[in-house]
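explain this.
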Amino acid sequence: MKNNNNFVSVGKILNFHGVQGEAKLGYSKNREEFLSRLKDVYVQEGGEYKLLEISRLRFTPKCGIIKFKGIDTLNDILEYKNKLLFVTEDMAREFLEEDEFLIDELVGLDVYDGDKKVGAVVGVSNNGASDLLSVKTLSKKISLVPFVKAIVLSVDIKNRKIQINNLEGLLE
């Protein structure tokens, strides 16, 4: 398949699991429900995206265990070790909750406190408790802003603006 759609990474094949072609899947916290709904994923090979059909997926406390149709031996799965798994951006969007966004959509958005521009989003990370926006302030310092309703008041993808409640000491 040619790359005519934007792809979003949803996980990574960490290693093989057993000798039946299963693999250990690494993924972001709390994404089990999302991953469980997927019927197939893409893997990148030589600049192209190849479709892999998921035949089984289960979760352990540390990772997912995934099995693809047509990959039935240890040797078959080994070629995918350390490869990222992707879905199309459209597919990722279907499963987003109303107040969830793709990281790519947030990076580059201007950050406002009331009518005053205070910076721009340069990255998104997670500290285990919540997602954090890395905001580069007008003074060129990077501040981490928890992506929680009390602080991030609104996200307007269309107008490329995030409205925050700039609590004292939040932005340098």
User: Anything to note?
Assistant: The chain has a mean pLDDT of 86.
